[in-house]
Write a structure and sequence with these properties.
By secondary structure, the protein is α/β, with parallel strands linked by helices. Helices cover 38% and strands 17% of the residues. It has helices spanning 45-56, 68-79, 87-105, 132-144, 158-172, 188-198, 215-224, 238-246, 263-276, 290-302, 314-317, 349-355; strands at 5-7, 10-12, 18-23, 29-34, 120-122, 125-127, 149-153, 177-181, 203-207, 229-231, 252-255, 279-282, 306-309, 323-324, 334-336, 346-347. The chain starts with a strand and ends in an 8-residue tail after the last helix. The structure holds magnesium ion. Magnesium ion (MG) is lined by residues 181, 183, 207-208, 232, 254.
């Protein structure tokens, strides 16, 4: 990546992702991607690879499907009993199969998320900084690109957060929407204490104030009603969604295709949220290529009630992207719906060859 990105749970300087290529009988290929994260679904590149080779890919090999509907039915049946700790692995395989089926049947993989509801969407930016100087650098770029929404990663210390948000608000101006993401840095009491102080910066939402497994804490912060609470690390599976809804432990879900087990499972979560009156926003993985960004774009443009979008940063963050056409957001965070057959972008094989460190073929 062009620069390192850090938050309360991780620091990342390079992108290390899983790609799955599904090859049809006619030689046509579909591609999928995921970014396994140990602090999200509990997966690493290694465990995801093992899950793909041992259990996820074997039932998909030599499966015949005569239309998109059959493909979606098959993938949906494969989701039954999928553990949370294999969801990112499944995502890479699912997107590859949807891409292949979409190219074969002449349909966008995005059809699993319904018809296009909005041809144009706007993405927001993310500030992941630990010093005011870094915030100023990010803010200068964000103003240059005229993003209207920004998510600021916050830290454990209230003092540090006050300084970062003071700087962000001063340099971004009054009209930019600012949300914060604590990545589980606080206890529930600490979250309430900090939110009382930080709300003077006119924040739109707080994401994952407490650790992923602390549902009672999420419930407590939501009940405090200081800011809308977004569930991110707490929300990966359909079961997570049901728990959060039942216990009123969030107001908004952060949908990220990789952690949520692919497009079909993400849509199941989205529909549960919509039925329960919760909002959703489209999130992204740091270091994702245009493949995962395209999957996120389908959600952003096809789900009618998406509040905010993140991701599609492509070459703004990566030194080189592997897929074409580029779908990196433009000035103002503007982006268009992707409506080509399959996932809508395809890897450049020369770039793949330069990036790939480990290949396994399965027949
Ligand atoms: Mg988050």
């Amino acid at each position: 990546m062009r620069f390192s990105v850090s938050h309360a749970l991780a620091e990342r300087k390079t992108a290390r992702n899983i790609l799955v290529q599904a090859v049809g009988e006619d030689g046509r290929a579909g591609w999928g991607e995921s970014c396994p994260r140990s602090y999200v679904t509990g997966e690493t590149i290694e465990t995801a690879k093992t899950a793909l080779l041992c259990s996820i890919l074997p039932p998909m090999i030599n499966t015949v499907s005569s239309n998109m509907h059959e493909t979606v039915e098959f993938l949906t049946s494969e989701l039954a009993g999928l553990e949370r700790s294999r969801q990112a692995a499944f995502c890479a395989a699912e997107l590859a199969v949807l891409d292949l089926a979409g190219k074969t049947f002449g349909l966008s993989a995005g059809t699993v998320a319904g018809p296009i509801a909005r041809r144009r969407v706007r993405y927001g930016a993310v500030i992941a900084a630990s010093s005011c100087a870094q915030v100023r650098k990010y803010a200068a770029l964000i103003r240059l690109f005229r993003f209207r929404e920004v998510k600021v990663k916050v830290h454990k210390s209230l003092e540090q957060n006050v300084k970062l948000l003071e700087t962000a608000r001063r340099f971004l101006g009054r009209t930019v929407v600012i949300r914060i993401d604590a990545n589980g840095a606080w206890s529930a009491d600490e979250a309430v204490r900090q939110l009382k102080q930080l709300s003077r910066y006119r924040l739109a939402a707080v994401e994952q104030p407490v650790s992923a497994e602390d549902i009672q804490g999420m419930q407590q912060v939501t009940a405090a009603g200081l800011l809308p609470v977004v569930a991110d690390e707490s929300l990966c599976s359909v079961h997570d969604a049901e728990t959060l809804i039942e216990r009123r432990a969030a107001n908004i879900f952060n949908l990220r295709v990789s952690k949520c087990g692919g497009l079909i499972n993400t849509m199941r979560i989205y529909r549960k949220a919509a039925l329960a009156g919760l909002g959703c926003h489209v999130g992204a993985q740091v270091g994702e290529t245009a493949l995962l960004s395209a999957a996120g774009r389908h959600l952003a443009t096809r789900c009618p009630s998406i509040l905010w979008c993140e991701g599609s940063y492509g070459l703004l963050l990566l030194k080189h992207d592997i897929a074409r056409p580029g779908i990196t957001v433009g000035v103002g965070g503007r982006a268009r719906a992707v409506d080509r057959p399959g996932i809508g972008v395809a890897p450049d094989m020369r770039r793949i060859a330069r990036s790939v460190t480990d290949v396994t073929e399965v027949y």
